[in-house]
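Students often ask what a holo structure prediction actually looks like on paper. The answer is less mysterious than it sounds. You provide the chain, you provide the ligand, and the output is a string of discrete structure tokens encoding the 3D arrangement of the protein together with adenosine-5'-diphosphate.
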Amino acid sequence: MEIDAGNTAWVLTSAALVLFMTPGLAFFYGGMVRAKNVLGMLMQNVFAMGLVSVLWATVCFSLAFGDGGPLIGDLSLAGLKDLQNVTLPGYTGDFALTIPVLAFCAYQMMFAVITPALITGATADRLRFRGYATFVGLWVVLVYSPVAHWVFSPTGWLFERGALDFAGGTVVHVNAGVAALAVVLVVGRRRGWPREQMKPHSLPLTMLGTGILWFGWFGFNAGSALGANGLAAQAMVNTHLAAAAGMLGWLVAERWKDGHATTLGAASGAVAGLVAITPCAGFVGGLSPLAIGGLAGAVCFLAIQLKFRFGYDDSLDVVGVHLVGGILGSLLLAVFSDKAVNALGADGILNGGGGALLADQLVAVGATLVFSFVLSYLLAFGIERTIGLRVSADEEAEGLDMTQHAESAYAFSEVGSMGRVG
Amino acid sequence: MEIDAGNTAWVLTSAALVLFMTPGLAFFYGGMVRAKNVLGMLMQNVFAMGLVSVLWATVCFSLAFGDGGPLIGDLSLAGLKDLQNVTLPGYTGDFALTIPVLAFCAYQMMFAVITPALITGATADRLRFRGYATFVGLWVVLVYSPVAHWVFSPTGWLFERGALDFAGGTVVHVNAGVAALAVVLVVGRRRGWPREQMKPHSLPLTMLGTGILWFGWFGFNAGSALGANGLAAQAMVNTHLAAAAGMLGWLVAERWKDGHATTLGAASGAVAGLVAITPCAGFVGGLSPLAIGGLAGAVCFLAIQLKFRFGYDDSLDVVGVHLVGGILGSLLLAVFSDKAVNALGADGILNGGGGALLADQLVAVGATLVFSFVLSYLLAFGIERTIGLRVSADEEAEGLDMTQHAESAYAFSEVGSMGRVG
Amino acid sequence: MEIDAGNTAWVLTSAALVLFMTPGLAFFYGGMVRAKNVLGMLMQNVFAMGLVSVLWATVCFSLAFGDGGPLIGDLSLAGLKDLQNVTLPGYTGDFALTIPVLAFCAYQMMFAVITPALITGATADRLRFRGYATFVGLWVVLVYSPVAHWVFSPTGWLFERGALDFAGGTVVHVNAGVAALAVVLVVGRRRGWPREQMKPHSLPLTMLGTGILWFGWFGFNAGSALGANGLAAQAMVNTHLAAAAGMLGWLVAERWKDGHATTLGAASGAVAGLVAITPCAGFVGGLSPLAIGGLAGAVCFLAIQLKFRFGYDDSLDVVGVHLVGGILGSLLLAVFSDKAVNALGADGILNGGGGALLADQLVAVGATLVFSFVLSYLLAFGIERTIGLRVSADEEAEGLDMTQHAESAYAFSEVGSMGRVG
Amino acid sequence: MRLVTAIVKPFKLDDVKNALTDLGVQGMTVSEVQGFGRQRGHTEVYRGAEYTVDFVPKARVEVVVDDADAERVVAAIVAAARTDRIGDGKVWVTPVESLTRIRTGERGSDAL
Amino acid sequence: MRLVTAIVKPFKLDDVKNALTDLGVQGMTVSEVQGFGRQRGHTEVYRGAEYTVDFVPKARVEVVVDDADAERVVAAIVAAARTDRIGDGKVWVTPVESLTRIRTGERGSDAL
Amino acid sequence: MRLVTAIVKPFKLDDVKNALTDLGVQGMTVSEVQGFGRQRGHTEVYRGAEYTVDFVPKARVEVVVDDADAERVVAAIVAAARTDRIGDGKVWVTPVESLTRIRTGERGSDAL
Ligand SMILES: Nc1ncnc2c1ncn2[C@@H]1O[C@H](COP(=O)(O)OP(=O)(O)O)[C@@H](O)[C@H]1O
Ligand SMILES: Nc1ncnc2c1ncn2[C@@H]1O[C@H](COP(=O)(O)OP(=O)(O)O)[C@@H](O)[C@H]1O
Ligand SMILES: Nc1ncnc2c1ncn2[C@@H]1O[C@H](COP(=O)(O)OP(=O)(O)O)[C@@H](O)[C@H]1O
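The corresponding structure tokens follow.
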């Protein structure tokens, strides 16, 4: 099947949009931490843009989409060996690409970059940079690449089994969410949590991140149609409506519980809706995105309270939003999925598809949960015991910016920033 | 007429760009208010992304583009009922869509989101969140949807009459601008205005908003060609040149009047130019965008001084920039319009078209002014008398962030943000 | 050759992305200056969006791409005279455009805007606004337009000679970088430099700029394929990988030299990699972007130390990053260039092309260096002697924001921003 | 001489400044402070977690005056800063042994 | 009366506040300051250039108290702010001639 | 002991700090303040509206010293902070009854 310029234009645009999401995520998280840790947070995210991309080009793309078995690809495409002329295994027939393989590779690379970055929100304010860097590098090779192969590659076992994931509900959100939980269990709580107050140092920065994430998510979901067509349009409408409904769902829930509709709540709810619609974006239609998003907003708001109940310091609620929202979306897909929207999909319960899809979705979610949790825990544990994954008490008190990067984020007053060079 | 992937790619991209404008607007406005009100401002804008989108999918899209009469659509498309297979009334022949109706629906949705958001600049620092939310919801249904139908839908009476509005000069800017004036007259001035100083708390935030708005406006105007073609390219060039000339026009005017060329002036002038070119973007060519933009920059700079003369507190100059700029652009279109640029347009005075177009433009502007002002005033008045649209004096003094959302925007110093949890 | 909607969609998108880079650059630089100069920096960049665009439409586009000789275009296209129907000289055969000339004109306009803006980083904190405005206007006409013609226009002498520059290694980076050096030599050092500390006032703002620049650079490089095809995809992959490798290269170098991997270092390294890949983006493949970017990151980190050795105050390292990185990339292209990637290119040393290309690249770099340095120096010198290009000692101490624009960037506290309306 | 220190509500600062200049006071020094007292702080909510902030933003005004003027200055500040609501603040007076104007080296009242 | 001024480590401020309220102190005024002393500052690096910052962020606590309470207040602050590490800070006491509550005009102890 | 309080131009702070350390002063506390005085403020313009800001940013330096050193410290500050232009600032000296080092509980001169 030959290259279509229109489809290529849309996928290249989408790749750019998804890349932009990682800085967006950095600001979303960065605004929520204290001023002494904001650079540490931004750095952790931006660094993923560097390290993960290099690993993707050298090995991960091949591991995820190369010609291996149902469990993992191979190294035949390592180093992006002449992708001009290759056809990716499984991308034939209904799945034949109408865009250059390099465009597909670039697009998928951006997913690999942002997924481990999502984890940084849970471990905010306490990771040692060197340990973090090691973790991210190993994680994207050992955890992300296989899971991406299972679910995204037509030769992957979950894909073949019939599990559906339009843009990464399991691969990205469940995967990163449960990994975040594992790492949090290894590194423990921030000192002073939950007694001490650690309020966001700049909500406008968080709102900026929210705007960029919402904007970029169109590339994330609608781009996953791999073409500029009715399906992409449907995915875009679903994405936007789920974000909108997620915002309203969260605001209603928090107003009912705390008596206030907050700015941070609006941002969090929109993200929850976006997470939940991710697996569904190209398989549902009509007003189902409102149901999926609205539910996600309310449920995630309640879910983030669990950390206080169980005492794990999921600092910026990666578990509460991405893990819970990702599972919710992956399962609701089995309810709302509609073949009239996407012939390559399946009918969900509401459209007479029965429980078959639900079973597949449960398998996909379950497999991702177990595999990612176990490997992530072992990786984090091993790094903590060797290189060290958590900073010392003094470093934590002084902040990551100073201790890990020898920088400070802000210098608004002359007096505050005095000193001499050298 | 069948779907073209290239056109679809461009419209999907444009929809994403227009969505991004609303956070951009939030930062543009948010930087101009005092630090105690910035979250209130961001929230008002972001909330529109939530509520308006849900209303658009459920009723407004159908009211604006459904098969009604010349005055309003119907509910045949409510809930986005199978848009895959529908042809929108009037979008046949010359106006036949070459993109999925869902893409058109998504694109138009972003216009519906940002239009009421524009109003928030005029009423800065004093709206009660609950009253605002009610106003926005009713306004988009009762005011925006009909006006969009009149002007944008080929079955609308102003469209049929021959009035031209390429991307929303009347529907968006005149409409929101005059509504802003109406609401300001209902809620009154900020306490202390104009005696007390209320200077912008973060001009870099405002400049960020400006950058995002300029960037997104390419989707707003060039996307309105509904295809990736010469007309879209012309609209993009016109948009950019008008913004540039608007900046210069404003700077020259303020340097002459106050002796300084200011950063905020550069931003404001660019926006004024963008507002004025919006109705004209796909109908004019050559260097006319320089004339339109330059005039808009200078005229709007003078127009914003009127509020001091007449004593209405158009806090962030929505009336001075969007109402005045929108009217100016809609009328200058009748001067510079050129059929050589767009065969579906008309020739303006300079191109031998005589005054016919001017008459139509005056009708369109006049109808929008009257309809929007009256309804907006009644809505605001009714809400103020029932739910309450303005905060109390104490709430205003303490700021919207704390009183409406129980949050504070910044916490740069440990000392400043002390306290205990719970 | 006729217009292709897909290619047009991508080039329009790319034009928007490149426009967005200039605000991005403003934030990248703005975060690095002291709080009293941030508006001055933002203004210098944003003003280029205004003035340069107007000049581009009126004369520069024609000078760069009009039908002149090998040295400069003519005025046949001045004022964008009916570009609908024109074919640009040289854009025939292999180079025939498949997009509207207006789209090409818009796209190139964004390059003309950002190039002089790059210079502002070197002269931070000390330019008089009026002098700067004069300089930018003259520079874009007298320096940028000819160089763009030499290298980009198929009728330019360097293009005809066989020199390769995919997206502006010489035209943009070497050109702006050496001009920056010239202006710095004219205006001299900031008072107190290098003894006094002038630390960045907001690294999050700089990181925002970095994110926007990386995002926009996809339009800058991949858009230069002037179509949505395999070459554009290759250029996007190369661009992203070079940014990633540049970040890692810089971080490794600074960790080895100073013992810390800094956030600002990550940002700077990514930009260095992006600069170096710019000329190469559409001519190299495989893993060469990793080599080019990685080298650029490390080399530029070392290069920025030279200013202390030689005592020129290249304040934000425009010389160290754009000049050095631009030269490096232009020459490395002669090493890694590969006809298998782009048939219109040439084979570099590693692909058996011998030194022929290297010779052409040296000529292109050398010609740009000499021409741009001499003219830029004379322009700056002339303006300094007449209008004045540098602010007074008192103005420099008080800051550009107050003295040049009568504004202050931030007002976080009520106490800090007291006063009465004049 | 005397140093009069006043803690007032920020939005009252302008009134205090004007009251003092009306008295002929030529200069003062102001700083941002956080106050704790009978006037309670407020509560913020982030993602369902309640944060209690016990401190209230206040402005701190310092004026060095001649002994003779101290009482009048205190009275003027009290009059200008008063809103009759909890949190209006305090004014206290401390002795100053010497005052010098840096620019000229003048001492005492001449330095005012 | 007496004015007790304490320079403490910011993260100790909450403890100090609680210690004082336990003593029955009803109010205090806090400000952000930069301290210079035995506790050295730190070094930052921007693009290879080292910046030495000599100042350390501290919190400044001011409490006006009755003469009789001054010593107890000082002791309470010392006890609460102490970490036994360099940079714990100082407490000094200065005489206050008069204190006025703006809201009521009350003077002296009644103004506390 | 004595508390020397100086209001100086921010960019002079480094010089003042160095002058004091040269005198053997081991510590000081600095804060950001807004000054009002003969040195007028400035005017800003936002969208054609003029804003007059009457306050000028200053740095406030506090040093507790032995009685014997007070005069030398004042002189050193005056010398270091002086630019001979309006707005150079003031220095005043107030009595201190006791000084305590929190870390050790040392009193008086030993606490310096
Ligand atoms: N003992 C004190 N020492 C120093 N400052 C005090 C003291 N008591 C109160 N203040 C300051 O005065 C402000 C107002 O005091 P508060 O008790 O709230 O109201 P009121 O002065 O009306 O009784 C407080 O916020 C604090 O800044
Ligand atoms: N002579 C002084 N006058 C005013 N403040 C001082 C003085 N000496 C120290 N300080 C303040 O006390 C803080 C702690 O002093 P430092 O010498 O660092 O530790 P320690 O008090 O444990 O000896 C300093 O940061 C400074 O704010
Ligand atoms: N009476 C005063 N009490 C407290 N601070 C003062 C007083 N007068 C002046 N200052 C402080 O000294 C600074 C400089 O005073 P100013 O009159 O502007 O210049 P100069 O000290 O050279 O006469 C002011 O900005 C203010 O901070």
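The two ends of chain F are 10 Å apart (CA to CA).
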